[in-house]
Amino acid sequence: MAEQTGEKSQRAERDPVTGLLTGADGQGRCWWHGGLEDYQRYHDTEWGWPVAEDRRLFEKICLEGFQSGLSWLTILRKRDAFRAAFANFEFDAVARFTEADVERCLKDAGIVRHRRKIESTINNARRALELRQEFGSLAAYFWSFEPKPDDRPQKLDFATARTLGKTAESTALSRDLKKRGWSFVGPTTVYAFMQSMGMVNDHLEGCCCRAGVEAARNAFQRPARK
């Protein structure tokens, strides 16, 4: 689940029972965007919508790694700078980064200047090339870990949503990625990635985006291994 930011909305308050936050447009949404314009836009247009493009998947999992210990809003607001620093997350290009690129990134005030996370992104790009070679695409690999419908909560109310930090599927994906040499891919980070890329629909019951996301997931053609 995307983290709350500490910033306070001047326009909306979370319902303590449903977890919904009603915005200026009268629509109820998941609480965590806090009524902030850019965060609400991310909630409405990106979070939970199914993704099959390898570049976007690589970007998402790398940014989730950078988010560890920080708020997602911090990362979201630095995303353009991250894209500039990491070749738009084209992992073919990132895989060719050298120590000089690490030093360049460490001097870039627009991103999170954390050596291990920067080096992890380069390492993970190289591992992504290996995954693509084996499975045909990152998408085919990641989507193979999608939970079965019977393994999902029957009703995603506020109380249930607050318990979702990791799952059996995110733990399995995390374990497999680590075996393949990936880093900064713990089960909680991986579950946040699964939420973001639409592998699960964790919009709350009553959220104005839940039905649209579910329809998109139902229509989505899962990538097959090539």
Descriptive keywords:
two-stranded antiparallel ribbon, mainly alpha, 226 residues, single chain, disordered N terminus
Describe what this molecule looks like in 3D:
Helix 2 (54-67) packs across helix 11 and helix 10 packs across helix 11 (187-197). Strand 1 and strand 2 form a beta hairpin. The protein has 12 helices and 2 strands; from the N terminus they run ββαααααααααααα. The model is unreliable at 2-6 (pLDDT under 50). It has 226 residues and is mostly helical. It has a two-stranded antiparallel ribbon with strand order 1-2. The longest helix has 21 residues, at 115-135. It is globular. Helices cover 50% and strands 3% of the residues. The two termini are 31 Å apart.
Topology of helices and strands:
Layout (H helix, E strand, L loop, with lengths): L19 E3 L5 E3 L6 H9 L8 H14 L4 H6 L1 H7 L5 H4 L4 H8 L8 H21 L2 H6 L14 H4 L6 H12 L7 H11 L12 H10 L7
Antiparallel strand pairs: 1-2
Helix pairs in contact: 2-7, 2-11, 10-11
Summary, kept brief:
With 226 residues, the chain is mainly α.
Structural class: mainly alpha
> What is the radius of gyration?
18 Å
Bin the strand percentage.
Answer: under 5%
State the share of residues found in helices, binned by percent.
40-55%
Report the mean per-residue pLDDT as an integer: 94
How do the strands line up in the largest sheet? 1-2
Low-confidence parts lasting 5 or more residues at pLDDT below 50?
2-6
Helix run count: 12
Give the SSE string.
EEHHHHHHHHHHHH
Q: What distance separates the N and C termini?
A: 31 Å
